[in-house]
Design brief:
Layout lengths: L2 H10 L6 H39 L6 E5 L5 E2 L5 H8 L3 E14 L2 E10 L3 H4 L6 E4 L10 E5 H7 L11 E6 L5 H4 L4 E12 L3 H6 E5 H8 L4 E2 L1 E5 L6 H12 L3 E5 H4 L1 H25 L1 H13 L1 H9 L4 H37 L18 H20 L2
Parallel strand pairs: 4-9, 6-8
Antiparallel strand pairs: 1-11, 1-12, 2-10, 3-4, 3-7, 3-11, 5-8, 6-9, 7-8
Length: 393
């Protein structure tokens, strides 16, 4: 049996002459528990927010996007699509055309971001999950149709396709023509029906609409050209590795980015906030660890006689130090165990019951996602702080 651990266990909350020592010990355990639980909850909440942001942007930003390093367009014949698909292990792909155009419905006008896509893009972006009204389709019985963001549809007052009217007019400048010289002749116009509207977030809803790739190519006078090629990779695929493989295949003339790299500032900001909050909570935990120092110091003073008896029986100074070292470890360990259990319980309640609500948001309550790696970081930080506080006295 480990003698120092046995003494430490008996001393932890044993009855003492001075009850203040027990009170300080309980406060030390409570502080460690609260800080640990706060770390678990905050990191899990930041994970949930990051996942929510990812889900909001993922419909329009596929796993990998290939664009020309120079210029706005690239020739569709310049890429070996089969080789790209094989190298990236993509399950689906779509050529993309993106350009700002003018939309008009009746007297209402709006500048919008047109995204010309192929039919499989609707499945790649899981557009059916974000459909607000109409059909998640880019074609009716007669021709191609458009899918509008909910904000655009509301601003323009455009009705859904009724099979008779085509109320949405798209106007785009023709490449190579100067507006001041040709005026109206410098614009290509096209009338299309609206098959449905989607709602993802306020940015996309008020800016974007989808159009069949062929119609987008016609209205912009593109000839076997595209703005980008987007790839959908299998679930849990390593996006960075896929991007490196495709980049090595295509060479420096093309830019291959993951969806995280396309929105690097947004994702890095979320991660920075997460770890900054973790550091702040760790600092608070370090301040709270002074309670451990106080508790152990007072316990040493009270147990001086016991230690003299132990020394007279052959106990060494190392044995005495080990007893109080284990005492501090027990305080930290009990507090950390309670804190992690409490933090996981709060996260579980939030996940299933949405205790803390979010008003006016795309979700009803704060999103929470617990990651095992975060629990390891939390436990390591608490043990480090507690270990230092235990070592001092």
């Amino acid at each position: 049996m480990n003698l120092p651990l046995l003494f430490a266990r008996r001393y932890l909350l044993a009855k003492r002459k001075h009850q203040a020592i027990n009170l300080i010990t309980l406060i030390s355990i409570a502080v460690i528990a609260v800080v640990t639980a706060a770390m678990v909850v905050v990191l899990s909440t930041m994970n949930g927010i990051g996942e929510l942001v990812d889900s909001i942007y993922s419909p329009f930003d596929q796993d990998l996007t290939i664009t020309p390093r120079e210029g706005k367009t690239m020739g569709m014949d310049s890429l070996d699509l089969a080789a790209v698909m094989q190298r990236s292990r993509a399950v689906s792909s779509s050529w993309i055309i993106e350009e700002n155009v003018l939309l008009q419905s009746g007297e209402q006008q709006a500048v919008a971001r047109m995204k010309g896509v192929q039919e499989q893009y609707l499945e790649m972006s899981r557009m059916g999950s974000y459909l607000y009204s109409g059909d998640a389709s880019l074609r009716n019985a007669n021709s191609g149709t458009a899918l509008l963001g909910l904000g655009l549809k509301s601003d323009l007052g455009v009705p859904l396709d009724d099979g008779v009217m085509t109320p949405l007019r798209i106007s785009a400048p023709i490449r190579g023509k100067k507006l001041s010289t040709f005026e109206k002749g410098a614009f290509e116009r096209m009338d299309v029906a609206v098959s449905g509207s989607f709602s993802i977030n306020i940015d996309f809803d008020t800016q974007y609409f989808l159009l069949p790739f062929e119609l987008a190519s016609n209205v912009l006078h593109y000839h076997r050209e595209a703005s980008a090629l987007e790839l959908d990779l299998p679930d849990k695929a390593d996006l960075d590795e896929g991007a490196r493989e495709v980049q090595a295949l295509l060479g420096p003339a093309y830019l291959v980015r993951t969806r995280y790299q396309k929105n690097a500032l947004m994702y890095s900001t979320t991660q920075s906030e997460k770890w900054f909050t973790f550091l702040v909570l760790s600092f608070i935990g370090a301040i709270g660890a002074f309670n451990i120092i106080a508790s152990l110091t007072m316990m040493m003073i009270e147990k001086r006689e016991d230690m003299r008896v132990l020394r007279s029986m052959g106990g060494t100074s190392g044995l005495t130090r080990s007893i109080f070292l284990f005492e501090g470890i027990l305080i930290v360990g009990v507090g950390a165990a309670i804190g992690i259990g409490l933090g996981l319980l709060l996260c579980l309640l939030q996940q299933h019951f949405g205790i803390i609500a979010l008003t006016g948001s795309v979700v009803g309550s704060y999103p929470v996602k617990v990651l095992p790696t975060d629990l390891v970081f939390v436990l390591a930080a608490v043990v480090l702080i507690g270990g230092l506080a235990t070592w001092v006295p």
